[in-house]
Amino acid sequence: MFDIATTPLTGCFSQQVSALTTIGAEAMARLRSLPADRAAHDAAMGALAAFRQVEMGGQVARPAPPGPLTIAAWNLERCAWPEPSAALLAAQGVSLALLSEVDNGLHRTHQRHTTAEMAAMLGHAHGYAVEFLELAIMPPLVACPDNPPDHLRGFHGNGFTTALPCRDPFVIRFPDESDWYLDAKPGQRRIGNRMAVAATFTHEGQDFVGCAVHLESRADFAGRARQMAFLLDAIEARRSGLPVVVGGDLNTAVEAVGGLDDPRETLFAGAEARGYDWRACNLAAPTTRPSGWSGGCGTRQLDWFCTRGFEAGAARIVPSVAPDGTVLSDHDMILVTLTFPPSA
């Protein structure tokens, strides 16, 4: 099953499925016993169908209201708390939530398909694609006696929930800027690569592309710029000329909050040269905080929107804290309101 010679799996893939193809316990055990070299990783990744798939599921029960669209981007740090996370999205009137770092069938989050469950709570449909197949088993924040000791699916990735009609999803797998197989953090050995998931959405008769993205946390300035350029090239190749909203965790490392003018972080200027806007759709403020999983990322601005073909406004940051004080993620939710220009 895992002896197929291949190169690293990068590019665009658009196989739409109702549920991602899973592997069994025997296959997971074989993956954990693979030799510690890139050829073994690349062969295994190339042989696993889920890395080429986008799951689409659920139904829209609460359609988006007419008028301006409220869109969220949120790194949910595995999504240990789906119910209050969905409630926080609902309280903001979000019609499209672009999500990153969401688990699907992992022991640490009680085997839940967190994106699908939140979508159902919101009355949304959902899309989901795999970033990594997690080989290591991490304990949950809260013990659950009925939680199987191994992963049921082992998927960690990006997704979206939507109150809008949606079609033609695709996953964009980035060239590697780091190695999470040979050089994993303790307890995080994994197969896969950074990615984005996008689809065509329709609002009031106008199509646009919505894209949830997660750039490499261990890349340098040039590496992030390469991944961003790869992303925008892929969107243009698939959906040329449509309005676009990209949202997610870009793992920027500028010294100051609101570092759009930091010349080292060239992904901003690279996108602006292609007609994308950053300034109207982001605040200059930190988007991180300590959480139950981690000590946080300091006062950094990691999470951003980037838009083309929209009029953006009402950018804001919503603390990722439930009413009972539970910290839902080490990233806060970012929000923006988008309208189509009169000529659209």
UniProtKB/TrEMBL annotation:
Gene3D superfamilies tied to this protein: Endonuclease/exonuclease/phosphatase (3.60.10.10)
A molecular function (GO) term: endonuclease activity
UniProt entry keywords in alphabetical sequence: Endonuclease, Hydrolase, Nuclease
Stored InterPro entries: Endo/exonu/phosph_ase_sf
Protein name listed in UniProt: Endonuclease/exonuclease/phosphatase family protein
